[in-house]
Amino acid sequence: xxxxxxxxxxxxxxxxxxxxxxxxxxxxxxxxxxxxxxxxxxxxxxxxxxxxxxxxxxxxxxxxxxxxxxxxxxxxxxxxxxxxxxxxxxxxxxxxxxxxxxxxxxxxxxxxxxxxxxxxxxxxxxxxxxxxxxxxxxxxxxxxxxxxxxxxxxxxxxxxxxxxxxxxxxxxxxxxxxxxx
Amino acid sequence: xxxxxxxxxxxxxxxxxxxxxxxxxxxxxxxxxxxxxxxxxxxxxxxxxxxxxxxxxxxxxxxxxxxxxxxxxxxxxxxxxxxxxxxxxxxxxxxxxxxxxxxxxxxxxxxxxxxxxxxxxxxxxxxxxxxxxxxxxxxxxxxxxxxxxxxxxxxxxxxxxxxxxxxxxxxxxxxxxxxxxxxxxxxxxxxxxxxxxxxxxxxxxxxxxxxxxxxxxx
Lengths: 181, 218
Fold this sequence. Notes:
The complex is a heterodimer of chains A (181) and B (218). With 181 residues, chain A is of the alpha/beta class. Chain A contains 5 helices and 6 strands. In chain A, helix 4 packs parallel to helix 5 (149-171). The longest helix of chain A has 23 residues, at 149-171. In chain B, a hairpin with a 7-residue loop joins strand 6 and strand 7. With 218 residues, chain B is an alpha/beta fold. Chain B has a 6-stranded mixed sheet. In chain B, strands 1-2 form a two-stranded parallel ribbon. Chain B folds into 2 domains: 2-61, no CATH class; 67-215, Double Stranded RNA Binding Domain (2-Layer Sandwich), CATH 3.30.160. Chain B starts with a strand and ends with a helix. Chain B has helices at residues 12-27, 47-61, 94-98, 103-116, 124-129, 190-215; strands spanning 2-3, 36-37, 67-73, 85-89, 121-122, 135-144, 152-167, 174-189. At the A-B interface, helix 1, strand 1, helix 2, strand 4 and strand 5 of A face helix 1, strand 2, helix 2, strand 3 and strand 6 of B.
């Protein structure tokens, strides 16, 4: 009888300790957006990290870490990263932790990573010059606190960067780089 | 049915027990609760499971709270001189549709807010006739949990102003560029998903209206 109870508890524990993870692309770039990468010779990289609370901060995902990851992925793929050009790739990472005043610790993390390529544009209607987003993708996810969550998140961001790299390379295959804005 | 420990542990376990009981009483929504036994003294390693159960109760059954993270990019200048905007609701993800979110309802909501604020809503030939064809693009992507996590939804919401533009570095490329964006991700239970998504879109559109009116006061 005792063994049966233990087995039941084990099964329940296994079910209940299943890692709660949702991770999926939310919005993907359209074919028109992909075309706007054509002729981009080099780009800057900006990373914004917004941790909404101390729980999110405790994961240790810093702007420096994510910037290093992003720059490495781009240069490895042969995309030139330069600090002084105008077109730029912006990674915005935001995270919040969910907790309850009666419960110690964090119940879950919810986060979003957005990658945007921004460049100078002249707006048709007003003729004014603006920096516009011409390519963007978003991933969003939720996860229970788990081991190596920071690595999982970095992997998720890496998938986002791969999408940009693939579109960039496809848009620039067999074509010479254009001029910089 | 819930089996409580015969001798409740002091401190954390006792607090969790009370909380679980409170949420079970408040919001079970008639759904069956999986039998669960809180760990006894010395068995703290399963607290992660307790937390997940409570999270599901909080968000899935009780529908008590939602959380949101936000990424904003709101340059006002690109809104100056606009004579109105169109509204396009991008195709919803299958999970969002299954949960009852309807593109047409979202579009009508957004148009109503814009009109109420005195902003002209352009459509069809009116929109095509305006230089740059500016429109508000509304996107909602939702992902429902699987299996036991089915009561949970994570969803991303994005509102963008898109308008025709020519790239400065290559004037042969005429694109529809986003010059104003507000986006965020939220988590909620199934029951609150539809209302939550509408509320989130409405709050972003209200922010757009504020920015629009700030640079286009008559």
